[in-house]
Amino acid sequence: MLTTQREYFLRMNMGYMLRNRSDANYERLREAATRAICAALDTNPIDVLTHMGHMFPVDEEKVIGACLRNDVVIEINASHRMPEPDVLRSALNRGCMFSIASDAHHPRDVGRMDWGLQTAAALGIPAQRIINTKEQADYLFKKARGKP
User: Fold this and answer.
1) Average pLDDT, the chain
2) In the sheet where 73-77 sits, what is the strand order?
3) I want to staple 41 with a disulfide (CB 3.0 to 4.6 A). Which of 23, 24, 66, 73 is the partner?
4) Distance (Å, rounded) from C-alpha 19 to C-alpha 61?
5) How far is CA 80 from CA 4, 17, 29, 103, in A?
6) Is 71 left (phi over 0), alpha (psi -120 to 50) or beta?
7) Which fold has domain 5-144?
8) Higher pLDDT, 6 or 32
């Protein structure tokens, strides 16, 4: 529930900016969201970046760079079908690691990762670059025990 007229105005204005991508406000929102996400990645111990660009538009290339600088994994979200395949291709080509998630909000959706799996396969993302595959889990377990 919206508590103030100001909050209502901000949400309505944000919705307008997201619908009108040619608007200068949209670009300011995109730049601000990109700066905020990159700053968070640069200053906090984050393992996986989820929902890249879901609520706010971002400069994906800058966010990918911040993920690389900080060894942060990029989530392939099967529920929201994001990031877009071209963004994932860029992240793959730049050397990022990935996680595939169902983003379940209901028990019946746990494990529904078809889109994520199909997209990863179509892009040729190797299992070694997906942290939640059995192959990668085995490798990390052996590495943690000093037996890579």
Assistant:
1) 83
2) 48-49, 73-77, 98-101
3) 66
4) 22
5) 30, 21, 21, 8
6) left
7) TIM Barrel (3.20.20)
8) 32
Q: What digits encode the pLDDT tens for the residues 16-51?
A: 555 556 677 788 888 999 999 999 999 999 999 999
31: its two tokens = 């730049």
- Give the H/E segment covering residue 48: strand 48-49
Residue type at position 131 = I
pTM of the model: 0.78
Per-residue pLDDT, 15: 54
Report in angstroms the alpha-carbon separations of 11 from 44, 57, 71: 27, 15, 33
Would the CA dihedral through 69, 38, 53, 49 be positive or negative? positive
